[in-house]
Amino acid sequence: MYIVIAGGGKIGEYLASVLLSSGNDVAVIEENLATADRLSVALQGRYLVIHGDGCDSKYQEDAGIRRADVFVATTGQDDDNLVSCEIAQRVFNVPRCIARVNSPKNLRIFKEVGIECVSSTTLIANLIEEETLLGSVSVASSLTHGNVTLTEIVVPRMRHHSNEAGILVSSVPMPENSLIAAVSPKDDDNVEVASEETVLYPGDKAIVVADNEVLDEVRALFKGL
Length: 225
Fold this sequence. Notes:
Blueprint: E1 2-6, H1 10-21, E2 25-30, H2 33-42, E3 48-51, H3 57-62, E4 70-73, H4 78-91, E5 96-101, H5 107-112, E6 116-119, H6 123-129, H7 131-134, E7 148-154, E8 167-168, E9 178-184, E10 192-193, E11 199-200, E12 205-211, H8 215-223
Parallel strand pairs: 1-2, 1-4, 2-3, 4-5, 5-6
Antiparallel strand pairs: 7-12, 8-11, 9-10, 9-12
Helix pairs in contact: 1-6
C-alpha cells in the first residue's frame, strides 16, 4: 500500500517506521525544515520526505497523493488535520483518510464531514490493529480501541540488570494486553520501532501501548527493573 502522512513529529515518524517495516511505501509531508531534514537522515532515504504544508494541495501532490491508498494527518493542530484530510478526500479522492484529533470537542466536526478520526492517545494502537493498513504488524486482539492508552515511560537506572549492557525488549516481562511498541533513545528525538532485539538503556523512552487496566502494573514493572 502507499500511505501519505502529514506531520513528521514523533507520531508521524513512528507510523512511517512501522509502515515501512511491514512492506508499505510511505511519504511524509513536514512543514518544519529542520524536522524534514532530520527525517531524511534518520530513515536514510527509505521513504519520501516532502518539506511543505500538508494543507497545501501542491505538496500533497508532490508526495504522490494521487496514488495513495491511505492519508493520515498526525499534526498537533486539529484545524490543519481537518483541512489536509478534506483536501486528500475531496480533491484527490483518497479512499481512506484518518486524522489525529487532539481535542475531544472536535471529534464531532471530523465525523460530520466524513473523516475517520481517533484521539492522539489511541492513534498508534488503532493503526497497528488495522491489519488492512499495516499488514503483518499486529497487536493482541484483546486490546480494544476504547480501553487502550499510549504512554511514554522513561527507563530508570536498573537495579537488577546491567545499566551498561541494557535489557532486551524481549526480556522485559510485560503484562498481558501490553507491549513496547517503539523506543526513543536517550538524548535523541528519533523513534525506532521496537523488536525483540531492541535494547533499552537508562534514559531511553519506551513507547508503550497498554490496556488501561494494566497501565499501573506496567509503570511499576519499569520502576522495578
